Amino acid sequence: MLGRWGAAMSAHARAVFGVWLLALIVLGAAAPSVFGALAGAGWQADSSESVRVRELAQRHFGGNSSARCRW
After folding, report:
1. Neighbour-count burial for 23-51, b at 16+ CB within 10 Å, e otherwise
2. Are 67 and 54 in contact (CB under 8 A)?
3. Residues 28-70: tens digit of each pLDDT
4. pLDDT band at 24 (very low <50, low <70, confident <90, very high)
5. Are 22 and 16 contacting, i.e. CB atoms less than 8 angstroms apart?
6. How far is the C-alpha of 33 from the C-alpha of 27, rounded, in Å?
7. 52-58: which pairs have CB atoms within 8 A and are 24 or more residues apart?
8. Labelling 13: which of 28, 48, 63, 71 has CA 20 to 30 A away?
9. pLDDT at 53
10. What gap in Å lies between CA 39 and CA 36, rounded to an integer?
11. Residue 47: what pLDDT?
12. Spatial contact of 55 and 44, defined as CB atoms under 8 Å apart
């Protein structure tokens, strides 16, 4: 069954490429809004080790932790 599916995909390579390209464009366009909604919306486990380390770094190094880095 997998072989037949692969053969069908290779026989319709342009259509498969077009669908993947369309999916890439749609998901790429949606990515900034999704990232913005999730990044600052308080999505963190306050009791996690990473949050404790980030807060410790902010206290001891004047806020110069990697959490403030915006690349």
Report:
1. eeeeeeeeeeeeeeeeeeeeeeeeeeeee
2. yes
3. 998 888 776 666 656 677 788 888 888 888 888 876 655 555 5
4. very high
5. no
6. 10
7. none
8. 28
9. 84
10. 5
11. 81
12. no
Helix 2-11 vs helix 13-39: crossing angle, to nearest 10 = 100
Tokens of residue 20, six digits: 């993947």
Place of tokens 């999505």: 43
CB proximity list for 65: less than 8 A, separation 6 or greater: 54, 57, 58
End-to-end CA distance of the chain: 45
* 33 residue type, one letter: S
Residue 27 vs residues 1, 8, 15, 21: alpha-carbon distances, Å: 29, 25, 18, 10
Rounded distance between C-alpha atoms, residue 25 and residue 15, angstroms: 15
